Amino acid sequence: MIKDSSSDKGKEVKILAQHICSMSLFKAQRVIDQIRGRSFDETLMILELMPYQASYPILKLVYSAAANASHNMGLNETDSFISEAKVNRSTFVKKLRLRARGHSYPIKRPTCHITIVLKEKSKLFLDKSKI
């Protein structure tokens, strides 16, 4: 989903990944807290070097958001930063593991929703950072 906010004098791209299997809310939250508010290049470097299994789906999501921003909105990837990143709890995937004597054991795998918003740095912010 792409949103153009004229009040902030910058464009932003919002991407949402729903029902991310193989990771719980807390595993994803640990990675998301490290990248919130950082630039795009710094985020890629952090996610590629993190030892957590949850960093790979988030890395793919950040790449997808940057590709959407450059293709649909014409934004430069190097001038963007992650303005908002959040993780919400989703449903549980329920399975049954068979046990002895015809019994079964329930397995509940948690899933999560991940939202990442890329925003373009304003010209004023870029000029201050070069000083």
Automatic annotation (TrEMBL):
Source organism per UniProt: Orchidantha maxillarioides
Entry GO MF terms:
rRNA binding; structural constituent of ribosome
Pfam families named among the record's database cross-references: Ribosomal_L22 (PF00237)
* CDD domains cross-referenced by the UniProt entry: Ribosomal_L22 (cd00336)
Keyword annotations for this protein? Plastid, Ribonucleoprotein, Ribosomal protein, RNA-binding, rRNA-binding
An example Gene Ontology CC term for this record: plastid
Q: Name one process (GO BP) from the record.
A: translation
InterPro entries hit by this protein: Ribosomal_uL22 (IPR001063), Ribosomal_uL22_bac/chlpt-type (IPR005727), Ribosomal_uL22_bac/org-type (IPR047867), Ribosomal_uL22_sf (IPR036394)
The protein in question is named Large ribosomal subunit protein uL22c
Subcellular location, record wording:
Plastid
What protein family does this chain belong to?
A: Belongs to the universal ribosomal protein uL22 family.
Specify where it is mainly localized: plastid
